[in-house]
Every structure is written in structure tokens, then in C-alpha cells.
Amino acid sequence: MHTSKKVLSPAFIRKGLFIAVTISLLTTGGLLRSSTTVDTWRSLLRIHPRNILIMFSAVLLSWLTEGLRVKTIAHLLGEKISFFNTLRINLASIFSGNITPLNSGTIPTQVYLLHQNGISIGKATAIVTIRLTFTSLLLAIGGPILLFLFRGRILREIGLPWLEGIVDYLLILALLYSAFMLFLLLKPNTGERFVQRLFSLKLSHRLLGAKAEIFCQKTLLEISEFRGALGRLLRGKPLAVLFVLLLTGCSWLSTLMIVPSILYGFGVNINDKIFRLMLLQFVIQFFLSFIPIPGGSGFAEIGFFSIFGKYLPKHLQALSVALWRLLSYYLNILVGGLCFLRLFNRNKEKNH
User: Fewest 10 Å CB contacts: which of 49, 143, 212, 223?
Assistant: First the structure.
């Protein structure tokens, strides 16, 4: 509870927003300064309004799909909440996640706002836990597998083939983590015993000190919450779980369509490049999930600059990064921030 209050405090939010936006603007500004020419602005003016609509449609689709996913999970757990309220709560949660390290603000914001809409704390936590776990499984399992299968091609695409040896070692760790995630999902009881033994090792106590027991209990609690929520979801509703998985994939696909829509807007034929573009984005997003800077600012711009650099002339590369960041980050911060302020101010008025 203390952590949630800290994450949702105005001072913490202002600090995170300032850090994330400042780093992002400085990085984007540096890229624009290094590659912007007169042709850059001419090309920007030549973008057809239809293509601009396609870019914004990709963002809108990601919002709608994610809203439907949360509403579906809530419905399957016996909770009723309107799609419009779910959409606003999601956007407010995206805002708080984008301005906090490792998206730490997403969970407390979503749980709090769902509770304010009449859902119990336990059910709200279950909804958010299931949503987060399905997303984490897709990222933690899909990321390493895709990177392992296509690592050579990916590194050649971004001009870093010499990193293949280092990536192999990182992949071993990532695949072990993926296997552990699956193990916890399929064998929760055995997984709990494994977690207890892991945190009872002398090495764990040496690294974590007195916090080893706290981390152990927190991990066991998360496993227990997910198992209980998933159990309720699975009872007589196996097809519902598949539908949630499908919505999780669709949510990711709609987000990954932003880069192809930008390239299409600049006249690039993307018909035979869709899979490659999505793969590159997914891998970069996988690595960004480990960056402690809010929103992955700085690293995100540089990572996506390498993607656009393969398909666009130099004068359009930094501009494309700026457009991608506008659509995938600043728009989320703007709209999500407005939802965040409106929802929290409304709840304050209710309490008064």
C-alpha cells in the first residue's frame, strides 16, 4: 500500500514525467539535428492525409483492443464495467506506467481505478494480475524464442552482427527465465517450493540481506494470486482463456503496426516487410522492458532509429523516429494524462 501511494503521489508523477520527456526530447532533438534537411520538411508536407489517418488508426486500435481485453477479463470474473470506463482506466494506467521506472505505476493505478468503479480490491487485483501475466508471458517467452530463431538476421538488419556472441549468452538467461515462467504456470505447487528454496540459499541472503524473505513472500503472493484468478477463469471457460490470449496478441499487433504505417506514409512498399518490421520492434520492446528509465526514453529512440535507417533515406530517419514517438508515447501521455487527472479529480470530489 505504501508503494502504491508513493507511485501515485503528485510529486512522484511530476518527477517521472519530467525525466521521461526530457530524455526523450533531448535524444529526438539530437537525432533531428544530425539528419534534418530541407527535404525533410518537404517530405513531411507531402504525406497524404489518408496516411496520417492510418497512423492514428493504429494507435486507436491498440487502445480499443486493450480496453476490450480488460473488460473481457473483468466479465469472466463476474464483474460488470462499461467499455468506456475500462478504456479511460487503461489510458490512465498507460500514462502512469510510461512515466515510472519499469512501468511500476501501471498496476497500482489500474487496481485503484477499477476499485473506484465498484470492483473489490481482490477482484481488481485479479483482473490486473491476469492482464499483466498474459502480457508478460507473451513478452518473456515470445521475445527470447523469436530472438533465438532470428538473431542473425535481426543483428544484420540493424548493423550489429558482431554482437551475436554476446546475445547468445543473454538468450540463454532469457530462455531459462522463460522456462521458469512456464514452470510456475504449469506446476504452481512445485514452483512455490522452488521459490522458497531459492530465497533460502546463502547466496540469496548475501545478495538481498534482510529483504530476501520479503521478496520471497511477494513472489509467492503473486503466484498465488495468479493461480487463483486463472483457476476462476478456467473453470468451465477454456475458450475464454484462448480469447484473452487472442486479444493479447491483437493488442501487441496493433501497437507494432505503428512503424509500418509510418513507413507506408512515406511511400515505402511494406508488403514483404511486415513480419520483419514487427519482429524487429518486438525484440527492441523486449530489451526496453529491462531499461529502468521511464518509458525507455533515450534507448527507445536510438533503437527505432536503427530500424528506420534500413528503409528510409537519411533525411527522413530522425523525423520517422519523432513521428513514432509522438504516436506511441506522447499521444499516450497526453490522452492518458487527461484521463488520469479527470478520474482522480472525480474520485477526490466523491470522497469530499
Answer: 49
Using CB atoms within 10 A of its CB, is residue 339 exposed (0-12), middle (13-18) or buried (19+)? buried
| Identity of the amino acid at 82 | S
d(CA 125, CA 291): 25
DSSP letter for each residue of 143-200: HHHHHHHHHHHHHHHTT-GGGHHHHHHHHHHHHHHHHHHHHHHH-HHHHHHHHHHHHH
Q: What is the pTM of this model?
A: 0.77
Q: Taking the CB of residue 345, how many other CB atoms lie within 10 A of it?
A: 10
Is residue 1 pLDDT above 50, yes or no?
no
CA distance 181 to 145: 13
Q: How many structural domains does the chain have?
A: 1
Q: Helix 314-325 to helix 10-35 angle, to the nearest 10 degrees?
A: 170
Distance CA 52, CA 267 (A): 12
The range of the structural domain enclosing residue 171 comes to: 2-351
pLDDT, tens digit (0-9, with 9 covering 90-100), for 200-237: 877 777 777 777 777 777 777 766 766 666 666 666 56
Burial 205-225 (b: 16+ CB within 10 A, else e): eeeeeeebeeebeebeebbeb
CB atoms within 10 A of CB 127: 26
Q: How far is CA 304 from CA 33, 168, 227, 283, 332, in A?
A: 17, 22, 36, 11, 18
Three-state SS across 81-128? CCHHHHHHHHHHHHHHHHCCHHHCCHHHHHHHHHHHCCCCHHHHHHHH
Name the one residue in this structure whose C-alpha cell is 498507460.
94
At 29, list the grid cell.
Answer: 532533438
